[in-house]
């Protein structure tokens, strides 16, 4: 049995991904204190809502998906109900394995994971690392579970804040660019529905090419950039406005925030 404790945006993305890839609703429990949200998830996915303590007693694998600021309270709530057979996977930004182990009084094995919301459609990217008592077998188990919603890589814990800034927050950067493209097209007179379909399909198509061609992004960009053409004119403006630096600074800010969250 798997329990998802905290079924907000990320908890739901993992839930939906797991159910879409063969996990039965009867094999998943959800602990979500917002009653309306728990009812809604039961209606849409057929999963039972239970208190976190019951989830910890009944499930041997727990996915903790509450906000980092709520994590210590959740750990304290479930700690007494854990045993050595439990595998606790936290997806919270900035919450280190040592914090997890400390508040669980070293009961169960912990895995720190950083997924992203495309898990909802089986296209997630997750990085994982284990705690001091986590065996390779337990890390394999966490990896297998998370692989059902996308790809998984193992990284040393010192890289987790950078991972969070790149792949955890990353989808938002692309939605932001999509939104800017839509608004630019609307400002130039394109009907909103047309602008949306153009931007959406362009970003999705470009992402599929990145994934399927295996080509470096520089090569893919060069293929679009005809000599003396429109793309070159656009890219010159992106460079002039420091978009490359802005992306670097944005990723750096996200990493810094992830580090701050680990300080409580
Ligand atoms: N949203 C994203 O793209 C990603 C989020 N994460 C991590 O996932 C976690 C959740 O983030 P979101 O889903 O965006 O936030 P959210 O606010 O949508 O979800 C948090 C959920 O936890 C519930 N909750 C609060 N206290 C609880 C408790 N004591 N027991 C059980 N549930 C409780 C809330 O009612 C809420 O539904 C965060 O730690 C975040 O760092 C990680 C990767 C990506
Ligand atoms: O914004 C956040 O803090 C979470 C972690 C990574 C993506 N969303």
UniProtKB/TrEMBL annotation:
Pathway: Amino-acid biosynthesis; L-proline biosynthesis; L-proline from L-glutamate 5-semialdehyde: step 1/1. Its main location: cytoplasm. It is found in: Cytoplasm. The keyword Oxidoreductase applies. NADP(+) binds at residues 5-10, 65-68. Gene3D superfamilies: NAD(P)-binding Rossmann-like Domain (3.40.50.720), ProC C-terminal domain-like (1.10.3730.10). It catalyses: L-proline + NAD(+) = (S)-1-pyrroline-5-carboxylate + NADH + 2 H(+); L-proline + NADP(+) = (S)-1-pyrroline-5-carboxylate + NADPH + 2 H(+). Its EC number is 1.5.1.2. Keywords: Amino-acid biosynthesis, Cytoplasm, NADP, Oxidoreductase, Proline biosynthesis. Residues 157-261 form the Pyrroline-5-carboxylate reductase dimerisation domain. Pfam families: F420_oxidored, P5CR_dimer. GO terms for cellular component: cytoplasm. HAMAP family: P5C_reductase. NCBIfam families: proC. Belongs to the pyrroline-5-carboxylate reductase family. Catalyzes the reduction of 1-pyrroline-5-carboxylate (PCA) to L-proline. This is Pyrroline-5-carboxylate reductase. It comes from Lipingzhangella halophila.
């Amino acid at each position: 049995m798997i329990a998802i404790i905290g079924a907000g945006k990320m908890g739901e993305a993992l839930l939906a991904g797991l159910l879409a890839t063969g996990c039965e609703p009867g094999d998943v429990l959800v602990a979500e204190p917002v009653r309306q949200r728990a009812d809604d998830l039961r209606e849409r996915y057929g999963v039972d809502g239970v208190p976190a303590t019951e989830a910890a007693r009944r499930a041997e694998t727990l996915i903790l998906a509450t906000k980092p600021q709520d994590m210590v309270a959740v750990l304290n709530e479930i700690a007494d109900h854990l045993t050595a057979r439990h595998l606790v996977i936290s997806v919270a930004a900035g919450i280190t394995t040592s914090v997890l182990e400390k508040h669980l009084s070293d009961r169960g094995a912990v895995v720190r994971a950083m997924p992203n919301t495309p898990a909802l459609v089986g296209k997630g990217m997750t990085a994982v690392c284990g705690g001091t008592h986590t065996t390779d077998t337990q890390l394999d188990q966490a990896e297998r579970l998370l692989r059902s919603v996308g790809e998984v890589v193992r990284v040393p814990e010192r890289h987790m804040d950078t991972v969070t800034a790149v792949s955890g927050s990353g989808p938002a950067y692309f939605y932001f660019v999509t939104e800017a493209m839509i608004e630019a097209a609307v400002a130039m007179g394109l009907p909103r529905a047309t602008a949306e379909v153009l931007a959406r399909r362009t970003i999705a198509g470009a992402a599929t090419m990145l994934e399927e061609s295996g080509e470096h992004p520089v090569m893919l960009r060069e293929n679009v950039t005809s000599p003396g053409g429109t793309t070159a004119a656009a890219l010159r403006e992106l460079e002039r406005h420091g978009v490359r630096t802005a992306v670097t600074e944005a990723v750096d800010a996200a990493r810094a925030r992830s580090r701050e969250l680990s300080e409580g």
